[in-house]
Design brief:
single chain; alpha+beta; 60s Ribosomal Protein L30, Chain: A; globular; Reactive intermediate/imine deaminase
Length: 135
């Protein structure tokens, strides 16, 4: 049975609580939910701008994927959590722009989008990822 390894990078925000940025076990890599946080300062960015928050959040997800030996092309599932349905179109545009440009295989990850409350009032979006690392 493969060992479980915590993934850690300074290129993404440090976890605020008792969890890992990501965990890899065998070929599976799970990235914890990320938000629009500057990794260097811990500051929540782009208040009220879900498009900018989505791009920052995906950059944080991507940094953890890379630290675990993966890319967005290895992702099989992204889960997006939004605080309001009104932000769906703007999030979807930013998401499509970011993800499509980073998936050279052309096989986009599966996605679930859920409307829910999030841990911080500043957060309009949170995203996590599941990848299968083949290299």
């Amino acid at each position: 049975m493969a060992d479980k390894t915590a993934i850690r990078t300074d290129a993404a925000p440090a976890p605020a609580h008792t969890f890992s940025q990501g965990v890899r076990k065998g070929p599976l890599l799970q990235v914890s939910g990320q938000g629009p946080v500057d990794p260097a300062t811990g500051e929540y960015l782009h208040p009220g701008d879900v498009k900018a928050q989505t791009l920052r959040t995906l950059a944080n997800v991507e940094a953890i994927l890379q630290a675990g030996g993966a890319s967005l092309d290895d992702v099989i599932m992204l889960r997006v959590y939004l605080t309001t349905r009104d932000d769906f179109a703007a999030m979807n545009d930013a998401y499509g722009e970011f993800v499509s440009a980073r998936v050279p295989s052309g096989v986009l990850p599966c996605r679930t989008t859920v409307m829910t409350g999030l841990p911080r009032e500043e957060m309009l979006v949170e995203i996590d990822a599941l990848a299968v690392v083949t290299g």
